[in-house]
Design brief:
Chain A is mainly α and 320 residues long. Chain A contains eleven helices and no strands. Chain A has helices at 8-36, 52-62, 73-90, 108-129, 133-164, 169-174, 186-199, 211-214, 224-249, 261-282, 288-319. The radius of gyration of chain B is 27 Å and the shape is elongated. In chain B, 21% of the residues lie in helices and 13% in strands. The N and C termini of chain B lie far apart (101 Å). The model of chain B has no long low-confidence stretch (mean pLDDT 88). Chain B has a domain at 47-151: 2-Layer Sandwich (Alpha-Beta Plaits). The chains are: A mainly alpha (320), B alpha+beta (179). The interface between A and B is medium-sized, with 15 and 17 residues.
């Protein structure tokens, strides 16, 4: 079996690695938060607390699989797998390294955005079918937030697409061989990071699941493995957004030759995963209306301006 | 516009940087069961009954501690021996009610009841939280090494008459005319 794009070996390796990494992030996040809050974090189970994830998994699998009697059973069961599936599907177009990937799609960027939009169904169905007012409030917030932030998430990527001249993520990486897009597209990068945090509803934009206001938001009624899927789905989202940032703005696997390409990719992506945790450690949650105002009144005009200038630059360059 | 950028961007970046710098600070966590914390000598923990330097019980069963106790967790019964000393027949502290306020220690006229820095008092059976006199009594003098109530107070007991206590003058016989 050869290790190339789309081979069974490649697909299995990516699926396995991504899920294991997402599960390990539970431990990584708690340790990093501890580091930045001058605590220790989980360090009792296994060396450095590494087996904490295993302990959590055992607990979550052996928990009673309970569906509230007042919930709408079908959509209640349907919601958690959706978020796992759509985010895992998004990973299929990510080019991890030359020859490592699932599909080499010409519409990679669009595919990722489409999957991100589908993710909104998961939180909407989960909150609505729970038949619980806090869950409903959470899913309302989640739906509004995801729909609004998708707009400038897409627009902020168009700058990169215009510069690269392709929607294919693999070719976008290759076109960064003589300069990463972080320099010409720094505004687009900032908007994409903010929108990415909001899309994966991580702190500081975890308004859909704000514990202090609405219990746990849309997954209030979930427990056991169904909650675990939401939980791992959130971490999968973090990995996905970090990988996208690396692919679109930091040259993907490109780097000095003393390390193999996949190592460069993993290194760059881990920096952004750590950055996501730092965001959680440092920045307080905005109010809901502040989030909406910030998005529509500040980020949207900024991203449109960025797209306008990038387009003008590309046209001017072609006219030369 | 500049104000907006300062509020939304610069201050957030400064926050992120300052929180990031905490990575190089020492952690405050004490890993408790492995590392025992250094307790202070005035810590209000487990209650004991001390003895005087002669090895006798200091408690004179005056009930002041039981009265001072805000949660009524102290129960005792006065008894008297053949020498005239008062002592508690039983002395019982229900530690499942005790709030370690230290009022009993402040109320005690004989320094008998004292709080110690020990705080590890968890039990599996609720009834084990009730401590009797033999559990509470220690063999030492606690915080006050030289204090002996009956050697200082004017109370007459067997082997010590009126006027024989420390710093106590012999009683004046008001009916005598002799100098």
């Amino acid at each position: 079996m050869k290790f190339e794009v789309g081979s069974a070996l490649s697909i299995a390796a990516i699926l396995f690695t991504v899920i294991v990494v997402a599960a390990m992030l539970i431990w990584v996040e708690r340790r990093l938060l501890g580091l930045w809050q001058e605590r220790l974090g989980p360090n009792r189970v296994g060396p450095f607390g590494l087996l904490q994830v295993v302990a959590d998994m055992i607990k979550i699998f052996t928990k009673e699989d309970w569906v509230p009697p007042f919930a709408d059973r079908f959509s209640f069961l349907l919601a958690p797998p959706i978020i796992m599936v759509v985010i895992l599907l998004s990973f299929s177009v990510i080019p991890f390294a030359p020859g490592v990937g699932v599909i080499d799609s010409d519409i990679g960027v669009l595919f990722v955005l489409a999957m991100a939009s589908l993710g909104a169904y998961s939180v909407m169905l989960g909150g609505l079918s729970s038949n619980n007012k806090y869950a409903l409030l959470g899913s309302l917030r989640a739906a509004a937030q995801m729909v609004s932030y998708e707009v400038f998430m897409g627009i902020s990527l168009l700058g990169v697409v215009a510069l690269a001249g392709t929607f294919n993520l693999r070719e976008i990486v290759l076109s960064q061989a003589d300069g990463w897009y972080i320099l010409p597209q720094c505004v687009g990068f900032l908007i994409f990071v903010i929108a990415g945090v909001a899309e994966s509803h991580r702190l500081p934009f975890d308004i859909p699941e704000a514990e202090q206001e609405i219990v746990a938001g849309y997954h209030t009624e979930y427990s056991g493995m169904k909650f675990g899927m939401f939980f791992v789905g959130e971490y999968l989202g973090v990995v996905l957004v970090s990988s996208l940032i690396v692919v679109l703005f930091f040259g993907g696997w490109l780097g000095p030759a003393f390390l193999p390409p996949i190592v460069w990719f993993v290194l760059k992506a881990s920096v952004f995963v750590a950055f996501f945790v730092l965001l959680r450690a440092a920045i307080p949650r905005p109010r809901y209306d502040q989030l909406m105002n910030y998005g529509w009144l500040f980020l949207l005009p900024l991203s449109l301006l960025n797209l306008l200038l990038t387009g003008a630059f590309v046209l001017w360059q072609e006219g030369m | 516009m500049l104000r907006l950028i300062k509020d939304t961007l610069i201050s957030q970046v400064v926050t992120l940087w300052k929180v990031f710098l905490h990575a190089f600070d020492k952690t405050d966590t004490v890993e408790y069961p492995d590392v025992k914390p250094q307790m202070f000598s005035r810590w209000r923990g487990r209650i004991i009954l001390s003895r005087d330097p002669d090895g006798e019980e200091r408690c004179v069963a005056c009930n002041l501690c039981a009265v001072a106790c805000p949660v009524d967790c102290i129960a005792l019964q006065k008894a008297e021996d053949e020498e005239g000393r008062w002592y508690p027949e039983f002395f019982r502290i229900n530690f499942s009610r005790c709030i370690m306020c230290g009022f009993c220690e402040e109320a005690c006229p004989t320094h008998a009841i004292q709080l110690t820095p020990d705080f590890e008092m968890a039990e599996y059976v609720r009834q084990d939280m009730v401590w009797e006199k033999e559990d509470l009594l220690i063999s030492g003098t606690g915080k006050y090494h030289d204090y002996n109530f009956y050697r200082i107070a004017g109370k007459k007991i067997g082997g010590k008459d009126k006027g024989e206590a420390r710093n106590e003058a012999v009683p004046v016989n008001v009916r005598s005319l002799l100098p």
